[in-house]
Amino acid sequence: MDAAAHDQIHELDALVVGAGFGGIYMLYKLRNELGLDAVAIDKAGGVGGTWYWNKYPGALSDSEGFVYQYSFDRDLYEQTPWKTKFVTQPEILEYLNGVVDRYSLREHIQLETGMTDAEFDEPSGTWTVRTDRGVTYRCRFLVTGLGLLSATNMPSFPGIETFEGRLVHTGAWPEDLDLTGKRVGVIGNGSTGNQVITASAPIAAHLTSFQRTPQYSVPAGNRELTPEQIQHHRDNFDAIWEQVHNSSTAMGFVESTVETFSLDEAEREAVYEKAWNEGGGFRFMFETFGDIATDEDANEEAAKFIRRKIAEVVKDPETARKLTPTDLYARRPLCDSGYYETFNRPNVTLVNVKENPIAKVTEKGIVTEDGTLHELDVLVCATGFDAVDGNYVRVDIRGRGGETLKEHWSEGPTSYLGMTTAGFPNMFMILGPNGPFTNLPPSIETQVEWIGDAVRHVSATDAGWIDVKPDTEAEWTQTCTDIANQTLFSKAAGWIFGANIPGKKRTVLFYLGGLKEYRSTLAAESSAGYPSYTTNDDVLEPAI
């Protein structure tokens, strides 16, 4: 950018940071519906958020396509051309670009522009946001759609900087990288590692999976939908989204209320087998029985079924042993397109790094503790993200009294409703900490619509800003903790509690009470006139 652009100050009503699912809809809401002067910025070279960065082989939604899209415009929904049960990364990216153009948003999105710091000025009630492009924005409302999974977590191994091949993270996949004929190493085997390994093994000369924790995974069952199924989704638009909004996981199916041990062993086996053949990780965990996520004995029954399937699929007993989890089935429920079958291939090797740790990285590849050099051309880090709050604490965001967000969250990230945090007025987070753990587009729409109503309300009053009360934030954080402790998820060392980041304090990062209850809480707050918030003059009349 030329020198004249430096130190420019753009006065706005609202600034949106991020241009993924959340940022795009927020910009639409602010500009096209509320008529505000709003701009979105994103450090990426294109819109799409997660789906812009995650271009790795095999990248696929694990929410079914008919509910992994916007619902705010029925015409848009009926024109979406997706024809498969799950949707690939290129299709989702094309869809989001189409949405941006459909609603004439592109000219209001500044790409390759990252937020470096943001500061709230109490007397004027405005945010000043500086960017790495020399442009400064001053706005009344700041909305952050930084993404749950976008602050990449790179591992630190001795000698990793000496590796002479390509070192990549799945969350920043280079467009020019082709794994065909390469010796590929993949560290990590969560949802992303699972997809990368399955998609890359058939084209790689050799693939080595460096597995940290064996995972429970069920088939995705991805397939082309029939014209009748597609038409059914379009014809039943209202009923589908009504069900989604009144469900727990927002995945487009009715969650089971049947208890595992209310059926005998043969009946249970039939339920699991049907779900296995249908496909879908969330369906397997939540559509089969209602107590898999809350009762250890019920959880173990489901886990035993998956373990038996691994033993049936994987031909080599030692490889099967390494791939078989023994802990709770209580992480993000995975699904795959032939993950376990991949380890039957002659060009695939599995290294269990808990039994045989990575000792160092050399210019030629990875050396494990047993002294073996695994020669590699490409080392893929499918090592996840510093989830939820990672992107926030990496930026200098200062609220009232100059307090930084990092200081405010020193004991773990907190919020009210996953959208506001005390001391940071008129700053709204899309998918901030302790928001709902669901299929994301319905939660994103729920939050964006609530934020839009709050912005409209504040704009119509004499109040300059609203700020959530600290006690309310503490109560919501405790509510999220209490609900999480009623589930088995809190007993598993998964990323949804920050357990994948060395040194990061384990904390609750999500509201696990379901979308229906979450939407009810939001509606009660707004209809009562935002009683959980204070204003600069401590006056905020009830909404009409």
UniProtKB/TrEMBL annotation:
PANTHER family: DUAL-FUNCTIONAL MONOOXYGENASE_METHYLTRANSFERASE PSOF, L-ORNITHINE N(5)-MONOOXYGENASE-RELATED. Its EC number is 1.14.13.-. It holds the Pfam family FMO-like. This is NAD(P)/FAD-dependent oxidoreductase. GO terms for molecular function: oxidoreductase activity. It comes from the Bacteria. Coiled coil: none annotated. It comes from Rhodococcus jostii. SUPFAM superfamilies: FAD/NAD(P)-binding domain. The keyword NADP applies. InterPro entries: FAD-binding_Monooxygenases, FAD/NAD-bd_sf, Flavin_mOase-like. It is an enzyme of class 1 (oxidoreductase). Belongs to the FAD-binding monooxygenase family. Keywords: FAD, Flavoprotein, NADP, Oxidoreductase.
